[in-house]
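ok trying this again, last paste got cut off
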Amino acid sequence: MWWLFNKKGPSKFSASSTAEEVTRGIDGSGLTAVITGTTNGIGTETARVLAMRGVHVIMGARNMVAAGDVKAALTKEIPSAKVDAMDLDLSSLASVRKFASNFNSSGLPLNILINNAGVATGKFMLSKDSIEQHFATNHLGHFLLTNLLLETMKETALKSGRGGRIINVSSDGHRISYRGGIRFDKINDPSGYSSFFAYCQSKLANVLHANELARRLKEDGANITANSLHPGIIPTNLVFSSKNSSNSIVAGVIKMLLGRVFKSVPQGAATTCYAALHPEVEGISGAYFVNSSLGEAGSMARDVNLANKLWDFSSDLVNK
């Protein structure tokens, strides 16, 4: 099984490839990217590698103190890095609107939008807009953000002649959902609630959103692509910390073994950076990427009618 981790796909990259490796030699100078969820994990690594390649990175962050720390670390490591942070709480539609308004009025171009942020809660919770937290943060906030930044992206693509790219970071959890895909009538119903299925439902929404957006952008003739991806499974250090194990040697062995199956953070950010910058991806839209290569999403994620229904349902929610 371990050899599969190093098996190369059509792009000549594999699950073991890192974000730096898949973007090596690529010059992102002159590009501007908005990335959500950049204060930890693969979001931070995505911001770091894009900044390393010359991209002006705008970090959309709920915790501005943490974002400031990330910015300081990135500019210390990469003195030439262009990194800025703007307040953004994806669980609040008002915050999303404020972020978009501030960005659109800044005069900055926008070439790349990476919808990366996500939450995984253990219990039923409602957002500030009284919408189930997974659906609100992982999907709906990004749905509204994308719509509000779209005109700026279109103008940038038109003026620069360079195609824009929108990337939704999903997961293979999109394959595990309720019968029928999304329970639109049960989004805010706590009875029979499963946080696991709610999370998977939001990840399915990420892929459906990208697919429907790709269709609409093509119909409009916009020079912008929309794709989704699975970054892989990235374990946290929490499970393996010595205070969580009576035997740190055993914990170390387990971590080493799982490291052959699970991805490190640099490996987890690779597919996002590949989809954002690699020339091979230019012009590809409505696709699903895995291990920095084209993959295939689950059958529900490829359901055109479900994607259209989700779009209408989401539009109604954000326009209430």
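PB: full thing came through this time. The chain is about 45% helix and 10% strand.
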